[in-house]
Design a protein that fits this description.
mainly alpha, two-stranded antiparallel ribbon, 2 strands, flat, transmembrane
Length: about 130
């Protein structure tokens, strides 16, 4: 931290990238009971409802609002240091790196005869 003044900004930008990624996971949790009803009903969390609405959906909506508020504040308030060109380039580069790694390893595993798409089809049995 001491040797590079912009390092704190990059650390906060990394947290923002994680928060933005959580938006996708949160939306998946919100819609899970409606899109994959059989899978949802097989999980222990399906027992919890509030007013007939699955608790995971309610929790997801609350968390989504929290995430969106934080992302908005990080974007507009200069005190967080995330609305600079440096942080925008850094965050974009993290997403590009993640995409490159995903498709690179997907290709690598396909050459080994492993279809990683199967890993995303169903939640494994515990």
């Amino acid at each position: 931290y001491s040797y590079y003044p912009g390092f704190i900004t990059l650390t906060l930008a990394s947290a923002a990238v994680i928060a933005i990624t959580y938006v996708g996971t949160t939306v998946a949790a919100i819609v899970l009971p409606y899109r994959k009803r059989e899978l949802f009903n097989a999980s222990p969390v399906s027992r919890y409802t509030i007013g007939g609405i699955p608790a995971i959906t309610i929790s997801g909506v609350i968390f989504l609002l929290f995430l969106l508020y934080n992302i908005y504040m990080w974007s507009v308030d200069a005190v967080y240091g995330l609305n600079s060109p440096l942080s925008a380039i850094y965050m974009l580069s993290l997403y590009i790196l993640a995409i490159f790694l995903y498709f690179g390893f997907k290709r690598y595993r396909r050459r080994q005869g492993i279809d990683i798409n199967m890993a995303y089809q169903e939640i494994p049995v515990e």
